[in-house]
């Protein structure tokens, strides 16, 4: 699957950071992780720092799939409102999902400080009503978050204009959010994994998984075989090819970065993620270099060639939307790209085994707008499963979750 097109900023900025070898011989392993993007890297880091020996396999160069196209807005705010999650799965589960995403941002901050040089920065998050009709829903969401201790405030139109320089009928301002360079972080994580004695291979494609009572044989396209106890499939939106039927809808999203803008021009946009209530939604955030990274214009296109042909048109549309909100900003799309992502019906990820492949093969499907924060949670969840422990989100993030879980409402 061609997961991206155009010129994703992270790969242009960073280049190929570390060469990893290709695997072309048989190997024994404890746990094999299929996928060397930010999700696979976070899982490999979590396992290896707790004594597990892992082997990471990436069929491209590390980080060259969806991670290179990620816009890396780190939010605890799930694409599905907490109010709506509570209606589906019960209040306790909805709050737990949101709190876990908030804790994941703090965990990512600690990890980024340990790694260094991954462009991590704390931000605020401004979630604005695209139209007056959306205000009541956002206020209901605000009330629920406040009731459970989230640090949020309501901004009226006048405050939005004064503080952020554009007009909207209202907005939720959250104090906890962040930004990061996901491509660089994936590399630094995997470098540490190797230093701990585990192994990372790129340009190595898995052809087949054969499970038995004692383990899994991972057969590579080049004929080599890995024998292991557990497999984690963390190959992003390509993971669904291992399932008998899709569990999420693949879609395309589009993004670009501007030329660097002076700090006085950026103002509070320099430390605030901005997104809207419309679906699909416009979103933007600044980069470490003072550029604006702008994304959105999502569509149902799942054919790479058609997505690729739309990149420049989508960039122009996004630029026009931003200039409508901020007429004084001159938006010049410098690097533009499109990428594949997947959406689940409820906005939640899937972590753990699927009946199609048995209990030794786990999936890490950090789908939706919270991919990196979900991956941080999933790394801990999957380690718990491999170690035979329960995790509080094990049921909610499993393939077996059902709306009947709403019986946990309290």
UniProtKB/TrEMBL annotation:
<dbReference type="InterPro" id="IPR006076">
    <property type="entry name" value="FAD-dep_OxRdtase"/>
</dbReference>
<feature type="domain" description="FAD dependent oxidoreductase">
    <location>
        <begin position="31"/>
        <end position="383"/>
    </location>
</feature>
<dbReference type="InterPro" id="IPR036188">
    <property type="entry name" value="FAD/NAD-bd_sf"/>
</dbReference>
<dbReference type="Pfam" id="PF01266">
    <property type="entry name" value="DAO"/>
</dbReference>
<protein>
    <submittedName>
        <fullName>FAD-dependent oxidoreductase</fullName>
    </submittedName>
</protein>
<keyword id="KW-0560">Oxidoreductase</keyword>
């Amino acid at each position: 699957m061609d997961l991206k097109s155009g010129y994703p900023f992270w790969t242009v900025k960073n280049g190929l950071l570390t060469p990893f070898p290709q695997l072309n011989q048989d190997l024994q392993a404890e746990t094999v992780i299929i996928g060397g993007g930010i999700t696979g890297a976070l899982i490999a880091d979590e396992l290896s720092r707790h004594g597990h020996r892992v082997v990471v396999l990436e069929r491209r160069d590390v980080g060259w799939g969806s991670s290179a196209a990620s816009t890396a807005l780190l939010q605890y705010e799930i694409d599905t409102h907490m109010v709506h999650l509570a209606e589906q799965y019960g209040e306790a589960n909805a709050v737990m999902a949101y709190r876990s995403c908030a804790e994941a941002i703090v965990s990512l901050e600690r990890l980024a400080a340990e790694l260094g040089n991954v462009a991590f920065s704390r931000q605020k998050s401004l979630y604005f009503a695209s139209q007056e009709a959306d205000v009541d829903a956002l206020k209901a969401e605000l009330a629920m978050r406040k009731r459970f201790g989230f640090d949020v405030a309501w901004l009226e139109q006048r405050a939005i204009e004064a503080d952020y320089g554009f007009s909207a009928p209202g907005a939720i301002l959250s104090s906890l959010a962040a930004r990061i360079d996901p491509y660089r972080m994936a590399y630094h994580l995997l470098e540490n994994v190797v230093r701990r004695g585990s192994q990372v291979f790129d340009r190595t494609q898995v052809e087949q998984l054969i499970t038995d009572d004692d383990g899994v044989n991972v057969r590579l396209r080049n004929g080599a075989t890995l024998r292991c106890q557990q497999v984690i499939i963390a190959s992003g939106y390509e993971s669904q090819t291992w399932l008998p039927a899709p569990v999420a809808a693949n879609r395309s999203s589009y993004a670009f970065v501007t030329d660097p803008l002076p700090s006085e021009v950026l103002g509070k946009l320099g430390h605030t993620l901005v997104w809207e209530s419309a679906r699909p939604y416009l979103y933007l955030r600044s980069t470490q270099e003072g550029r604006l990274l702008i994304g959105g214009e999502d569509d149902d296109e799942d054919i790479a060639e058609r997505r690729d042909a739309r990149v420049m048109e989508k960039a122009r549309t996004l630029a026009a939307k931003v200039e409508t909100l901020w007429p004084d900003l001159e938006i010049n799309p410098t690097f533009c790209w499109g990428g594949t992502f997947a959406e689940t019906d409820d906005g939640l990820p899937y972590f753990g085994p699927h009946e199609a492949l048995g209990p030794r093969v786990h999936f890490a499907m950090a789908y939706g707008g919270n991919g990196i924060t979900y991956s941080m949670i999933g790394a801990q969840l999957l380690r718990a499963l491999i170690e035979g422990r329960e995790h509080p989100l094990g049921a909610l993030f499993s393939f077996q979750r059902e709306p009947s879980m709403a019986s946990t409402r309290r």
